[in-house]
Design a protein that fits this description.
This protein folds into 2 domains: about 190 residues, Rossmann fold, CATH 3.40.50.2000; about 170 residues, 3-Layer(aba) Sandwich (Rossmann fold), CATH 3.40.50.2000. It contains 14 helices and 15 strands. Helix 10 packs across helix 13. The longest helix is centred in the C-terminal third of the chain and has 22 residues. About 45% of the residues are buried.
Length: about 400
């Protein structure tokens, strides 16, 4: 278990100018704010940066480690946590104890934001409700789908029930896509759900990042069609489906290459399944954008995404995308115009879609251009303002109820 670390129990420094969100004080609880890099915590750090620039005060409560993946945005207070057995890179925050709880009380938030259904978040919800403070929960992943990737599918119904209890104690939810919001409504998680979409940094991700010389350095010829995958390498990202579909292409004699960008506990398994693939390991920022733009098509069969940051970044780089017909992807991809939406687990259909792109350069170009145009709709500042607006609405509603 890690001991909590905390800054002095004071408010964040006042901004130079008041800003439109002055007076808004957000206590944000995260299970992973910066110790392992992923799409969810990148979105949270961007949100905190935006809120601070607008004059809000933000305090983040999350597990901390000696060597985090990146520096946190804003004030981070460490909470006690333990490593998940079998997945030691991730930690479970235990709750609100001692100086962490005193720090929270001294900060005196006007709204509490919880971003993962862990023990600390449960305690934070109870703490807020006892003080009649509004609580917003952001949904970043389909936790209830994880057991199926570890031969524990029987755990899905009770896990869904636990999630329902957690989310229904919150005043509202924000989901990253309308398709995910609809899933949450159907699961009866909550009925006050706003959309907090995701953005893409178009100064980094764009077609101009394509670099054939870089590809050649990896042994990928200019005339080879490269099917790409980039994400954290864990089984819940659909690595088994990806591998099976690539095997099907090989059986059909479809010439292609595979480029995998990322790292994680399943890397050895994935490399063993795809011995001819090129693995770059983890890349970030401009290096990641260069790798993505240097692919020819993205294949990302995960069904656990609530939005699809990977898909959006690939689209911004001008790639056609082959993805599962699942929450998140359905809100991004226009089937047969900017990519293909395929029934989850349908190996032959995934292979059919990939084969069509491998065989037809004009089709790749047309669908890639359509996806790149669609990606221009996602501005981070506009997207993050929707969360700020939700905070303010919940505060007004709470005040009106007295």
């Amino acid at each position: 278990m890690t001991a909590p670390t905390a800054s002095p129990a004071t408010a964040s420094p006042a901004p130079v100018s008041p800003g439109p969100l002055a007076g808004l004080r957000i206590a944000l609880f995260s299970g992973n704010y910066n110790y392992v890099r992923d799409g969810a915590n990148q979105a949270l750090n961007r949100l905190v940066g935006y809120l601070l620039r607008q004059g809000a005060a933000v305090r983040v409560y999350a597990p901390t480690v000696a060597e985090p993946a990146f520096a946190p945005t804003g004030d981070l207070v460490g909470v006690p946590s333990f490593a998940i057995p079998g997945r030691a890179e991730y930690r479970v925050p235990l709750g609100l104890f001692g100086r962490v709880k005193r720090d929270l009380a001294a900060f005196a938030p006007t709204v509490v934001h919880v971003s993962s259904p862990d023990p600390a978040a449960h305690r934070a919800v109870s703490w807020a409700r006892s003080r009649r403070l509004p609580v917003l929960a952001s949904v970043h992943t389909r936790f209830e789908t994880y057991p199926r990737y570890y031969n524990l599918a029987f755990m899905e119904p009770p896990l869904e029930a636990l999630l329902r209890r957690f989310y229904r104690r919150c005043d509202a939810l924000v989901a990253p896509s309308e398709s995910m919001a609809q899933v949450l409504r159907e699961q009866r998680m909550n009925y006050d759900i706003d959309i907090w979409s995701r953005g893409v940094d178009r100064e980094i991700f764009h077609p101009g990042r394509r670099d054939l010389a870089w590809r050649r350095g990896l042994g990928l010829a200019d005339d080879e069609v490269v099917i790409g995958f980039f994400s954290r390498l864990v089984m819940e990202k659909g690595l088994d489906v990806f591998s099976d579909a690539i095997d099907e292409l090989a059986r059909r004699g479809v010439k292609h290459r595979v480029l995998v960008v990322g790292d994680g506990p399943a890397r050895d398994w994935f490399a063993g399944r795809l011995p001819e693939a090129v693995f770059t390991g983890f890349l970030g920022g401009a290096d990641l954008a260069r790798a993505v733009a240097s692919m020819d098509v993205l294949f990302f069969p995960s069904v656990t995404e609530t939005f699809g940051n990977v898909t959006l970044e690939a689209m911004a780089c001008g790639l056609p995308v082959v993805v599962s017909e699942a929450t998140g992807s359905e809100s991004l991809v226009d089937d047969r115009r900017s990519g293909r939406l395929i029934r989850p687990g349908a190996i032959r259909q995934f292979a059919d879609a990939l084969q069509a792109y491998v065989a037809d350069g004009a089709l790749r170009s047309a669908h890639g251009a359509a996806g790149e145009a669609r990606s221009r709709d996602f501005s981070w500042d506009r997207i993050n303002q929707t969360v700020a607006d939700t905070y303010l609405r919940l505060i007004r509603q709470r005040a009106a109820r007295g």
